[in-house]
Structures are given as C-alpha cells and as structure tokens.
C-alpha cells in the first residue's frame, strides 16, 4: 500500500482529492494532509509517504520551496504537482526541481489522477522492491531505464550499480503526441501505451526489447544502439520515418518524432530525454516528423505589450470594424509568436488573460462563457486551431459591442430596435427617421458616431447574419432565405453575402453540410473571409 501526503491550503481541494476515488481499492492510502510546505515537511518525517501531491502557491512555504527542501533531504518518494491554468512557469520550475508530473486542478478527474499515481508507483517499484542482480533481465532493465529517464534524483551513478551496459552508445528516437493526455488516433480512439509498445516490438524486432521506454502516458523514448544502426545501415532519422509510417498505417495515429544526430552514452542522454519532452511542444507551429532535436527551440519569454494594453487595442479595432473576420494587429501578433517560437503554454496563458480582460472590460459575463473559452484554448493542438478559437471569440465580442446599447443615444437604440424588428421588410431611411421623429441626416450622424458603422452597413450585416443562421439551421431554398431577410433580388443577395462572408451562399451551405457530416464543430473559416 503506497502512502500519500496531500499538501494544499484550500480545504475544498483536499476534500475533493480525498473523495475523488476509493484509494485503498487501487493500492493507495492517504496518510495525512497539510496546508503549507512547512507543515508538510514535519509530516514527511513522521509518516514517510511514498507520494506527495502538492499545490504550488501556498502561504508560509510554497510548493517550490517544499520540493527543493525535499530534494536536499534526499526524499526517496515521488512528487506530483497541482496547478492552476496559467502557472506554467511555476510548473516548469517544479519539474526541473524534481516533480514527476503536474495536474491541472480545473480538469482533474479520477482517471487522470489514478494514471498519475500508477505511474509514480511504477517508478517506485524497481527501486523499492527489487534487489541488485547481475543477471540480465530485459524487463528489469527497462524499469531501471524508465526510472533513470523520468526521475531527476536517480543519477547515472545509481544506474551503474545495476550493471547496465554503460559502454554502449545510443541515438534517441522520441515519439509522442503533444497536447494529448493519451495517445489518440484520427478516429478519436484512445490507445493504451501497451498497444504502442506491442506494435513497436512486433515491427522493430531488430531492436533489444528494453529499448522502448515509456516516459509517460503519451510518450516513449527509443534507445537506438549505434551498433544496430551500423549493422542495419538505417539512420536514426530513417528509423523515425519508418515508425511514423507504421503507426499512421496500422493505427491511424499521427506521431511527433524527435531524433538526435549523434550517438551518446547513457550518462549524457538523460538531459536530452528531458529536452525532447520540452521540445515536442514545437509541433504547435510545425508538425513535421521526424525532426532533429538541435533544430528545435522554444522561447519562454517574448517582448510584447502587456495583455491589458493589447486587449484594449483589440477592443478598439473591433468597435471600429464592420466585421471580426480579420484583425491586423492580432494576425501580426500570431505571426510574431510563430516566428519567435513562443512556448505554446506561455502563449495560451497570455491569450486567455487577454480574453478575460476583454470580457471584464465589457462586463459581458452573461454573453461570454470564459470556462468554455479556457477549455477551448487549453486543448488547441496547433496555431491554426488556436486562431479559429480566437476569431470565434472575437466574433462574439464584435456582436456584443454592436448590440450593446448601454451607451447609445436613445434615438440610436430606437433605430436599432426598429431595424431588428423589420429587417425582413423593405426599410427606407425616410420611414426609419420618421418612426423616431428626427431628421435623416441627424439620425445617420448619431448612428455612425455611436456604433462606428452606417445604418445601411448595419442593415446589411444583420440581414446576412440572419441568412447565415437560416442556411445552417434549415433546408430552405436560397431564394426563400433571401426573401426571408428582406431581399427579393437573388443576384444582389449572393453578391452581398459573398462581400461579408467571403464565399457565396451555396459555398457556405456546402461548407456547413460537410462539417456537420464530419461531426465537427461549425466554425467559419476566417482565413477565407475578406473585408467588405
């Protein structure tokens, strides 16, 4: 029975963890809980827990200080970190200081917690339960190598005590699926690590069975002996190519593969293994495989304006633009991030804070679901997907600004209400101004001043928005939809729709049909839109 110590200053978090699963059923037991690092150190001495689950931000002594203190004391157990979204820099320091892995509080569930606990137990078992042996045992060797590559405290000197073949040189072939909690194929099926390993063993049987080392739930390190590379005349890059093709063909699984240029001894490979895990996030920008580790680098800091200032600039641009399909400042920002290879977690954290500030500035909590937005941002696997999520958010913000009448003149509010109630009819400026009781010129002026757009442009945008909704939700003929939004000229309707959406109504209808059949979320392709 593995003993667990929970460290968190929030009582509700500790209660949630304790009740998340039946601990004893899976071979674990909570021996104690603490509210800060200082209290935890005293409990570690008293209970000697095998696994510590700790928060990072706590009073008195935080999680980072606790991890460093445990390392100084040569704590033999394993440490898991609990973090909030946006705490990436703290998490990075924690992993560097000796934590095994981290879990996000917002998305923590029973299966993920249990998977992490079992991973810790696997790392503990070869060291705690197995005696030194001079007999070569592939499974034992694999456990030792897994411990060596995943545990910062398990040094090369400790590895040598188990008589691992230290004179051999190896290339590294690192396979993973970044931004996925588990290996997931193109059909959405989750594949267990055992399936991945079995396919490797079956198709690459010229490699020793202990060459395939599972780093975590969604990554493996393959140690490719220099001697084998020479005998097979197969470079490590070519090995990576074969692995990529094999998994694509048999499992419909798209892998990201990183390889080393030179073969090194185990003593020098441990740091490279950690670097591969970090560098794998580069696939956020370019998903080409295989790729050499020395060609990958990510920046953890970037020189850009404060997220609050950028949010304000974007709000200004959105308030002045007729559509939210293209924002020059944001497009340049994303291009800059791609060029400078900003770490995806840093980028996502910055963007979420920026979006939160935009929502807060507009007091749009009833209109924008920040929890859903956070999840959408967090689960993006590449820059294109992130851009689509953001432009969908900008569309919501743009719509909110356009319909937010809190600061409009009374006459402008009345004008908007009239248009929304009569958009399906013929609307003339004469009738509109007469219904409000002011002159046409004055109405046009105050409408433009308050909304940033003309009355005619507002009517066009509203009608096309209603038309797009009808195309998505109904099987009406396009001429029927045109008449339903107050336009009797089919040719004019097509031209106006294309001006706003960048495609004809027929093309838009086909796009929606394809995405619905594929079971995909309907998101406009903003890259095809043009300003009108």
TrEMBL record:
Pfam families tied to this protein: HTH_18, Response_reg
Domain HTH araC/xylS-type residue range list: 413-511
Phosphoprotein is among the record's keywords: yes
Alphabetized UniProt keyword annotations: Cytoplasm, DNA-binding, Phosphoprotein, Transcription, Transcription regulation, Two-component regulatory system
Known role: May play the central regulatory role in sporulation. It may be an element of the effector pathway responsible for the activation of sporulation genes in response to nutritional stress. Spo0A may act in concert with spo0H (a sigma factor) to control the expression of some genes that are critical to the sporulation process.
Any GO CC annotation of this UniProt entry: cytoplasm
Location(s), subcellular: Cytoplasm
GO MF annotation: an example: sequence-specific DNA binding
Gene3D superfamilies to which the protein is assigned, alphabetical: 3.40.50.2300, Homeodomain-like
Keyword Phosphoprotein appears in the UniProt entry: yes
InterPro entries per UniProt: CheY-like_superfamily, Homeodomain-like_sf, HptR, HTH_AraC, HTH_AraC-typ_CS, Sig_transdc_resp-reg_receiver, Tscrpt_reg_AraC-type_HTH
Primary localization: cytoplasm
Record-listed 4-aspartylphosphate modification sites: 55
One example of a Gene Ontology biological process annotation: phosphorelay signal transduction system
Designated name of the protein: Stage 0 sporulation protein A homolog
Species assigned in the record: Faecalicatena orotica
Response regulatory domain residues: 3-120
């Amino acid at each position: 029975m593995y003993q667990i110590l929970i460290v968190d200053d929030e009582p509700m978090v500790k209660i949630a963890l304790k009740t998340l699963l039946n601990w004893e059923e899976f071979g674990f037991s909570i021996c104690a809980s603490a509210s800060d690092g200082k209290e935890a150190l005293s409990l570690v001495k008293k209970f000697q827990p095998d696994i510590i689950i700790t928060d990072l931000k706590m009073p008195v002594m935080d999680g980072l200080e606790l991890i460093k203190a445990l390392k100084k004391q040569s704590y033999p157990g394993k440490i898991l970190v609990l973090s909030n979204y946006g705490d990436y820099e703290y998490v990075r320091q924690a992993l560097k200081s000796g934590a095994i892995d981290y879990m996000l509080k917002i998305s923590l569930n029973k299966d993920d917690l249990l998977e992490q606990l079992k991973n810790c137990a696997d790392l503990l078992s070869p060291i705690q339960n197995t005696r030194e042996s001079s007999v070569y045992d592939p499974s034992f060797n694999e456990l030792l190598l897994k411990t060596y590559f995943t545990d910062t405290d398990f040094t090369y000197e400790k590895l040598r005590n188990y008589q691992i073949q230290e004179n051999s040189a190896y290339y590294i072939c690192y396979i993973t699926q970044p931004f996925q909690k588990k290996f997931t194929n193109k059909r959405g099926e989750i594949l267990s690590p055992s399936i991945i390993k079995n396919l490797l063993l079956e198709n690459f049987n010229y490699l020793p069975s202990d060459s395939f080392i599972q780093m975590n739930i969604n990554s493996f390190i393959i140690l490719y002996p220099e001697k084998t590379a020479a005998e097979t005349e197969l470079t490590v890059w070519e090995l990576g190519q074969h692995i990529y093709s094999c998994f694509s063909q048999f499992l419909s699984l798209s892998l990201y593969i990183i390889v080393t240029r030179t073969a090194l001894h185990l003593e020098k490979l441990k740091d490279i293994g950690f670097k591969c895990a970090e560098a794998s996030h580069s696939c956020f920008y370019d998903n080409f495989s295989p790729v050499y580790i020395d060609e990958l680098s990510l920046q953890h800091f970037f020189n850009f304006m404060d997220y609050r200032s950028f949010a304000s600039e974007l709000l200004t641009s959105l308030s002045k633009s007729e559509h939210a399909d293209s924002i020059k400042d944001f497009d340049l920002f994303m291009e800059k991030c791609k060029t400078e290879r900003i770490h995806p977690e840093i980028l996502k954290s910055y963007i979420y804070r920026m979006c939160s500030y935009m929502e807060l500035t507009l007091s749009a909590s009833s209109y924008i679901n920040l929890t859903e937005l956070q999840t959408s941002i967090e689960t993006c696997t590449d820059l294109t997907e992130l851009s689509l999520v953001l432009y969908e958010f900008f569309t919501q913000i743009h719509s909110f600004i356009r319909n937010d009448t809190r600061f409009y003149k009374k006459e402008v509010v009345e004008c908007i209400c009239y248009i929304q109630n009569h958009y399906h009819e013929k609307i003339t400026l004469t009738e509109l101004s007469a219904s409000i009781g002011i002159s046409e010129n004055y109405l046009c002026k105050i409408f433009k001043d308050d909304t940033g757009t003309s009355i005619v442009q507002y009517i066009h945008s509203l009608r096309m928005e209603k038309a797009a909704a009808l195309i998505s939700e109904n099987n009406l003929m396009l001429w029927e939809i045109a008449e339903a939004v107050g336009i009797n000229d089919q040719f004019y309707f097509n031209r106006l729709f294309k001006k706003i959406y960048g495609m004809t109504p027929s093309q838009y209808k086909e796009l929606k049909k394809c995405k619905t059949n594929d079971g995909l979320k309907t998101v406009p392709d903003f890259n095809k839109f043009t300003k009108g």
